[in-house]
Amino acid sequence: MKIDQIMRKVSTASLLALCCVGSFAARAADAAAPLLNPLFQDHAILQRDQPNHVWGHAKAGDQVTVTFAGKKASAKADTSGRWEISLPAVHAGGPYVLTATTRSGASQTINDVLVGDVWLCTGQSNMVLQVKRSLDARAEVQNASNDRIRMLTVDNVSSVTPLDSIPATDRWLKTTPENVPEFSAACYFFARELQKTQDVPMGLVVSAWGGSRIQPWMSAQALRKVGGYDAPLDLLALYAMDRQKAGEQWDTQWRAWWHSRPGVTANDEPWNPAHVTQEGWQTAPLDKGAWQRWGKPELANFTGTVWYRTVVKLTSAQAAQAATLQLSTVNEADQTWVNGRWVGTTYGGDPRSYAIAPGTLHEGDNLIAINVLNTYRDGGLYGDASQRALHLAGGSNVSLADHWQYRAVPSSYGPPPSVPWQSTQGLSTIYNGMIAPLADFTFRGALWYQGESNTSDPAHYQALLEALRTDFRERFGAKLPMLIVQLAGYGAAPTHPTESGTAGIREAQRLAAAGDANSGLAVAVDIGERTDIHPANKQELGRRLARAARHVIYGEKNLPPSGPVPVAAQRQDDAVSVRFSDVTDGLVVYGADHPVGFELCGAQAGTCHYADADVHGDTVMLRAAMAGADITRVRYCWADSPVCTLYDHSGLPAGPFELPLTSNRASQDSHP
After folding, report:
1. Which of these three, 562, 585, 601, is where a domain ends?
2. Is residue 422 part of a domain?
3. Per residue in 387-438, pLDDT tens?
4. Whole-angstrom distance, CA of residue 58 vs CA of residue 79
5. Pair 261, 400 in one domain
6. Closest to 456 (Cα-Cα) out of 531, 335, 375, 372
7. What is the dihedral of CA 319, 324, 325, 331, to 10 degrees?
8. CATH of the domain at 194
9. Intervals of the chain under pLDDT 70
10. What is the value of pTM for the model shown?
11. Residue 624 to residue 575: CA distance in whole angstroms
12. Do 290 and 167 sit in the same domain of this protein?
């Protein structure tokens, strides 16, 4: 019963008693509530040699004093109860005790706090991937005992508005055989390798979410600065205030997108009962699972969108009841309609549950239509057939187990738009839930491993990545270093030059890192796996990230951070030369006398040709059959899963790249 209903029923005396009890309960809750934000708990690690912000909640106006490692600072809680202090810098060491006390008598103490270097490890599933899934995992787990590497994994939380705290159940954990199996492998192996040259405690805050695009990791302000996101961000803001109105607007926008597809006619509306047709529809064998397993050749390797539909017959009594649509597993994003009325959208591989608004159902045939987007594997509607049903308020269920049809959508239509409040495919939703709560924490640097979910739009990725980096620096410090993992190889090996969204993302990552003195790049194309987007060799990735950190962050300028780096591509009579810098003891080719994977290209897509290549010191000379006048650019290892054989004697590969062709003089002027 709501409090206003209670208040209307109690007498004046009872109300007074109720208020007194409530006041006592509030005081008890204030006394018991933690003073410190959940980031500050036993076994935490704070950043060395920099001031550390510490914050939490107390009674409004109360004085809070924090003591740590012989340092002390005080602050007053604001009108909302939030307080924040800045602790003076402390050298690496510990363990220490951190205590927060208030003038009113509240107190909280956390123990076993170390001071060292603290890292934010973020991105999508390759940052999530655990130690237990890495190479030689059994031995890695058995031998994991290091009190000076500790990890806090932030639970997956999305929000349409910025949150103040991570979940209170998230815990700082020591490196032990019991804890390390669930650690982020990339983050853990980075810290373990880095500790060989930086003998200090390492704190790892892992805030990562599998399948996430870059846009949900960015604040609304950052996305507005990039441009092109104002309309969906306005819709997101509306959703925070009025979900029903936002849903109606989203439905209108989605339908407009559908009708803008080439070949879609005015009557082609699979969600609309008035336009039901049998043309193009086939029986959907949901009992066989994902559509890739149906035995249909056109769907065997298909990723994209597929329509599903079924018709359910209801009596007038059934149609008059409030109802909930229950769907079994849907992978990965759905848009769902009942009788032409949009009822919801969800991202992920879980069952769905959508409330159906009164007046939507009617006596007779009722059309349920679902558009399902799948971008990786195991796509569609499947799972426990008993979970597909209409749940009626009267307690009965109407089965939707069988009689489904499907219709595949041409790939030329492209991916449908994502609702801006979705978790991993939306806008700012993960930033609000998993970055904003960290905003005052002090980090030594950030590791970013993401991009697989943006390969359908590589042209905009560099601007987004640079804006995300700026966004992070506005939250965590103007010079926050960022180490970027260039996407690993995944997919079929190329047999001819081809366009590749994955290669486009790699180039965007390379350019973003190269254009910023406080950024580094870890090349991973050669340690990928063609049949698994989640390569297991995270140990080598950790070594390469640590090497980049030593150069970019710790000032080892004589240590090339990421292997041979392309500097310029020049015409040389009937050949093209590609010059490299950051080469250790000369270039070397693995497995052959000549490197492979170089391409000479014209200005347009589809004009690239493989080139014969020879190594001369720090330069590679290229020749191809195409006319020299038509060559405008050079590409190397440009494919989803290319074969890359050019390294230097440090064992690091030359990463994928694209360079414009320049004259000798232009190159000399640019690179003295």
Report:
1. 562
2. no
3. 999 999 989 999 999 999 999 999 999 889 989 999 999 999 999 999 999 9
4. 10
5. yes
6. 375
7. 170
8. 3.40.50.1110
9. 1-32, 626-629, 664-672
10. 0.89
11. 8
12. no
Do residues 641 and 528 touch, judged by C-beta distance below 8 A? yes
> What one-character-per-residue DSSP string does 398-428 give?
EE-SS--EEEEPPGGG-PPPPPTT-TTTSSS
Q: Are residues 375 and 457 located together in one domain of the fold?
A: no
Distance CA 467, CA 444 (A): 20
* Listed residue (115, 329, 288) closest to 203, CA to CA: 115
The verdict on 490 and 537 lying in the same domain is yes
**Half-sphere exposure of residue 206: CA atoms within 13 angstroms, side-chain side:** 32
Q: State the pLDDT at residue 103.
A: 97
Q: What is the pLDDT of residue 134?
A: 98
pLDDT at 627: 66
Could you tell me if 476 and 573 lie in one domain?
no
80, HSE (Cβ side, Cα atoms, 13 Å): 5
Q: Does residue 148 form part of some domain?
A: yes
Q: Is residue 454 part of a domain?
A: yes
Query: Hey, what are 668's tokens?
Result: 């000399």
pLDDT value for 9: 37
Count: domains in the chain: 4
Please choose, from the candidates 551, 548, 566, the residue with its C-alpha nearest in 3D space to the C-alpha of residue 644: 566
- DSSP classification of residue 452: G
- Listed in sequence order, the residues at least 6 apart from 164 whose beta carbon sits closer than 8 Å to its beta carbon are 37, 82, 436, 437
Same domain, 155 and 190: yes
Range of the domain at 644: 565-670
| Residues 57, 77, 30, 111, Cα dihedral to 10° | 50
- Pairing relation of β-strands 389-392 and 482-485? unpaired
Q: How many CB atoms lie within 10 A of CB 104?
A: 15
347 shares its domain with 461 = no
Residues ≥6 apart with Cβ < 8 Å to 143: none
CA 335 – CA 518 distance, rounded (Å): 42
Quick check: is 349 in a domain?
yes
Q: Are residues 402 and 263 in the same domain?
A: yes
Q: Which residues lie below 8 Å from residue 395, measured CB to CB, with a gap of 6+?
A: none
**Is omega for the bond preceding 658 within 30 degrees of 0, making it cis?**
no
